[in-house]
């Protein structure tokens, strides 16, 4: 079977345009990167509902907050690193504290941005956004999940951060996929170890599962698309079932999926935990594949972490 790879930015904008035809509240704001975020397609479809703010992310978030107070549903589109860090104060005060219906879509997440280098590698965005009360944090894994998540957040009353990517990713889910907010999805049962992955790392986790199963290991694989609110039940159930969890994310090991899982485990069911992610460093400028290899964001790295964990349980 030929692998289908798609751009999550295209999937998001295509779905948003479709939804905007029947929901006049939807407006889009961008910060001089509409070609990169793909929001220029929305501007072509609805020029009167698109606002170009220039390189002024803080002003863009403040403007979005104002539009939300008037009953509109603004989608803020820009690079994840700028949406989460440069505009953090505005998101915190103008959006989160007021619980306004602003949707922040951060594209170019993680080191998969590649050659743009450490200034543009967003490896702290999930950490920053999940610290904010009332903000839902979503990291879809493929185009099908991205479209389903986009439809969901238009029904969600309140602020939301959705992380998208620059690189094309494999299609994992079929047309019957149902997005269940705040619920992890068990892709396969297993008894030796649980692998939990989010975003681009789900495709790598699937390959790691194949490697491990070929060696005789029983692997429970779970997709975590909603980082906040995290699915505590599935984490506790997995801990009890397999006695160990490996988390996988294109993000710092501090504050993201691994930390969210650890917070649940330490309160409810302490077990062995391994975190696959960017260690305590800024990544270099290089092609995405090379960065994933250097920073151990690969199927081999996931499989190695899983086998280490299993051996420690013995």
TrEMBL record:
Alphabetic keyword roster: Membrane, Thiamine pyrophosphate, Transmembrane, Transmembrane helix
A Pfam family that the UniProt record links to this protein: Transketolase_C
Cofactor section: thiamine diphosphate
Signal sequence extent: none
InterPro entries: PDH/Transketolase, THDP-binding, Transketo_C/PFOR_II, Transketolase-like_Pyr-bd, Transketolase_C
Residue span, Transketolase-like pyrimidine-binding domain: 6-172
Keyword Disulfide bond: no
CDD domains per record: TPP_PYR_DXS_TK_like
Membrane-spanning segments: 60-82
Keyword Acetylation carried by entry: no
The family this protein is said to belong to: Belongs to the transketolase family.
Protein name according to UniProt: Transketolase
Gene source species: candidate division TA06 bacterium DG_26
């Amino acid at each position: 079977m030929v692998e289908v790879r798609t751009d999550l930015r295209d999937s998001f904008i295509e779905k948003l345009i479709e939804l905007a035809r029947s929901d006049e509240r939807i407006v889009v704001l961008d910060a001089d990167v509409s070609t990169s975020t793909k929001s220029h397609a929305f501007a072509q479809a609805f020029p009167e509902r698109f606002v170009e703010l220039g390189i002024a992310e803080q002003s863009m978030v403040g403007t979005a907050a104002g539009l939300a107070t008037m009953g509109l549903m603004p989608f803020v589109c820009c690079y994840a690193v700028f949406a989460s860090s440069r505009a953090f104060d505005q998101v915190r005060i103008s959006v989160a504290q007021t619980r306004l219906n602003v949707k922040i879509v951060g594209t170019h997440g993680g080191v998969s941005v590649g050659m743009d280098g450490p200034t543009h590698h967003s490896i702290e965005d999930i950490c920053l956004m999940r610290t904010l009360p009332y903000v839902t944090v979503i990291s879809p894994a493929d185009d099908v999940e991205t479209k389903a998540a986009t439809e969901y957040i238009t029904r969600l009353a309140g602020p939301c951060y959705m992380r998208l990517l620059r690189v094309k990713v494999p299609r994992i889910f079929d047309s019957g996929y149902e997005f269940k907010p705040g619920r992890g999805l068990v892709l396969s049962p297993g008894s030796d170890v649980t692998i939990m992955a989010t975003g681009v790392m789900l495709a790598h986790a699937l390959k790691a599962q194949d490697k491990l199963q070929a060696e005789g290991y029983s692997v429970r694989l779970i997709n975590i698309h909603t980082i906040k609110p995290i699915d505590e039940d599935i984490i506790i159930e997995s801990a009890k079932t397999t006695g160990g969890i490996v988390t996988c994310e294109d993000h710092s090991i501090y504050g993201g999926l691994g930390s969210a899982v650890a917070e649940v485990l330490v309160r409810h069911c302490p077990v062995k935990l391994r975190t696959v992610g960017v260690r305590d460093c800024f990544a270099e400028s290089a092609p995405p594949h090379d960065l994933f290899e250097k920073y151990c964001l690969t199927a081999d790295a996931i499989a190695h972490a899983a086998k280490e964990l299993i051996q420690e349980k013995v």
